[in-house]
Automatic annotation (TrEMBL):
Source species of the chain: Pyrus ussuriensis x Pyrus communis
Family listed: Belongs to the protein kinase superfamily.
Name this polypeptide is given: non-specific serine/threonine protein kinase
Gene Ontology biological process terms, A to Z: defense response
PANTHER family given in the database record: OS01G0588500 PROTEIN-RELATED (PTHR45621)
GO cellular component, one term: plasma membrane
Any one Gene Ontology molecular-function term assigned to this protein's record: protein serine/threonine kinase activity
Length: 391
């Protein structure tokens, strides 16, 4: 499945770059709408009820051990605080282990027994993905709960994570094109819009590039629901919770108060959209002084059409129009507004990205964009210098 999970640690006032964090106070959620409903909405259920889901297969530990060739190191797809994810194969009829290269390909996530809050997150994943169905959510096939063993079995996502495509350098990971980046952003937005819909009302607390997985056609699917929470009900405006997530993606009001709403997710989406546009991580201490925090550094340039090129990944030169870049940057700026009420809802984000994709398909504005880039050669050269410094 290509998951790259970062380590989760306790935190008070500061945290390590790229790490998940959890505060020492309280325990989490809100919403908007769009996209057709593919689910039965989650309701509070006991552990027994969750594990009896008719939609999930209960695997034996031995079956998964055989399917992954005894969890061989060369089968590892990703690893982190939760544990490791292994590639495996099962027979499409019997669901028993199959020879590598035959049957159904799986991604098997095995809980590290020392994992922080492991069982609770494992159960949350089974609860949500056992009930929620949407093209932009990764499919949970089943689970294993046997003695001390806890595993989750997903569809295999051959494209790996968005994180790898954006930030890894090397011959295997070629830079994603502008059009593919917009396609991935739209798919991830549709997944969030579905979660926020009135029928579902789920807040996905860990929206980030490593949790956006890609299939062979670059369709994006959200994964890792261990931190998800039901949204507020009745006249409540938020859900109070301990602060959890990944450093660099948390909305300022959530970090300050522990009050979780759908607008908290939208801030995280804005951070990811900014990473998509820039090809830079949200926090990177290797960048020049003053540029370590992507949001703080990029924000002043997003609203200025003449300075957007300082933010856009220079590997994308010639692939987009200036108008398209401006619209995408403006959307990112709205999503990362400090005031949550100024952020759009996910339906609006989906609509904006759909319109952007439609305009990309016409291809009618590229020559104008190229002229604008020539006039902004100074900005582009600055961007090139900054990128080479950070590598």
């Amino acid at each position: 499945m290509g998951i790259c999970l970062s380590a989760r640690i306790k935190v008070e006032s500061s945290v390590n770059t790229g790490s998940k964090f959890v505060s020492n106070d309280g325990d989490l959620s809100s919403t908007s709408s769009k996209v057709s409903s593919f689910s039965a909405p989650p309701t509070p259920r006991s552990e027994g009820e969750i594990l009896k889901s008719p939609n999930l297969k209960s695997f034996s530990y031995n079956d998964l051990k055989l399917a992954t060739r005894n969890f061989r190191p060369d089968s590892v797809l990703g690893e982190g605080g939760f544990g490791s994810v292994f590639k495996g194969w099962i027979d499409e009829n019997s669901f028993t282990a199959a020879k590598p290269g035959s049957g159904i390909v799986l991604a098997v996530k095995r809980l590290n027994q020392e994992s922080f809050q492991g069982h609770r997150e494992w159960l949350a994943e089974v609860n949500y993905l056992g009930q929620l169905y949407h093209p932009n959510l990764v499919k949970l096939i089943g689970y294993c709960l046997e003695d001390e063993h806890r595993l989750l079995v997903y569809e295999f996502m051959p494209g790996g994570s968005l994180e790898n495509h954006l930030f890894r350098r090397g011959s295997y990971f070629q830079p994603l094109s502008w059009n593919l980046r917009m396609k991935v952003a739209l798919g991830a937005a549709k997944g969030l819009a579905f979660l926020h819909s009135a029928e579902t009302k789920v807040i996905y607390r860990d929206f980030k590039t490593s949790n956006i997985l890609l299939d062979s056609n670059y369709n994006a699917k959200l994964s890792d629901f261990g931190l998800a929470k039901d949204g507020p009900t009745g006249d409540k405006s938020h859900v109070s919770t301990r602060v959890m997530g990944t450093y660099g993606y948390g909305a300022p009001e959530y970090l300050a108060t522990g009050h979780l709403t759908a607008k908290s997710n939208i801030y995280s989406f804005g951070v990811v959209l900014l990473e998509i546009l820039s090809g830079q991580r949200t926090v990177d201490k290797n960048r020049p002084s003053g540029e370590h925090n992507l949001v703080e550094w990029a924000k002043p340039f997003l609203a200025d059409k003449g300075k957007i090129l300082r933010v856009i990944d220079n590997r994308l030169e010639g692939q987009y129009s200036m108008d398209g870049a401006h619209k995408a940057a403006t959307l990112a700026a709205r999503c990362i507004s400090t005031e949550s009420k100024l952020r759009p809802n996910m339906d609006e984000v989906v609509t904006a990205l759909e319109q952007l994709q439609d305009s990309n398909a016409t291809g009618g504005t590229q020559s104008n964009g190229q002229r604008m880039r020539r006039r902004s050669a100074d900005d582009a050269s600055k961007n090139q210098a900054r990128s080479s410094t950070s590598r």
